[in-house]
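Risk register update: the risk of archive-format incompatibility is retired. Evidence:
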Amino acid sequence: LKDACTEAQFASDPAGCPEGSKVGSAIAHTPVLPVPLTGPAIFVSHGGAAFPNLDLVLQGDGVSITLVGLTDIKGGITTSTFATVPDVPVTSFSLVLPEGAHPALAANGNVCAKPLYMPTRIVGQNGAVIEQRTRIRVAGCKPEILLERKRVHGDSATLTVHVPSGGRLTASGKGIGRVAKHVGKAGIVSVAVHLSARYRKAAASHHLRVRVQVNLRFTPKHGQALDAQTRLLMR
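Archived output:
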């Protein structure tokens, strides 16, 4: 933070800011421009502010936008809040704050010891609100399969899973049979499971919902198999 760029220098030419103030980079893709907007992430000191802002300078196709992140530090936790963003559609956005000579962030403890979640709240222009706990994937930890989402549709359910490499994903369990799917590379894969005819008949005759356990097994092309479980309430 002590290497932050001065407000005057940033207003004159962000490229001339000290090397220590440049802590990362950002890229935003939007369908309204033919190229993505890219640029550095810079700590900028603004007069009497307690802490420097984290400013993102995004440029492309003749457009230049500065996103201002207000920085605060409480209880040893550093937070940068971007209160406003451009009112345009954004396909994807990435902010990279890497390790190096001038890092902005550092891990607090063992980030592989237990699952990490990010509280997420998205408000649409129509007032619709999505709130969830988003699982954070940490590179370099022991490989694992992560259940990103599960959606139940009556007698069937769709499981969205992140796998660490190419291989074979299998879902099985009492009452749903066995489903397998081949995966070419690391990433997100969806697999659909269905209640067996016997379980559907029993549930329908007694007007019951059925709770089943789904066992997920991922067999990579190289290395040991990985397992996970989840429960579903179906019908």
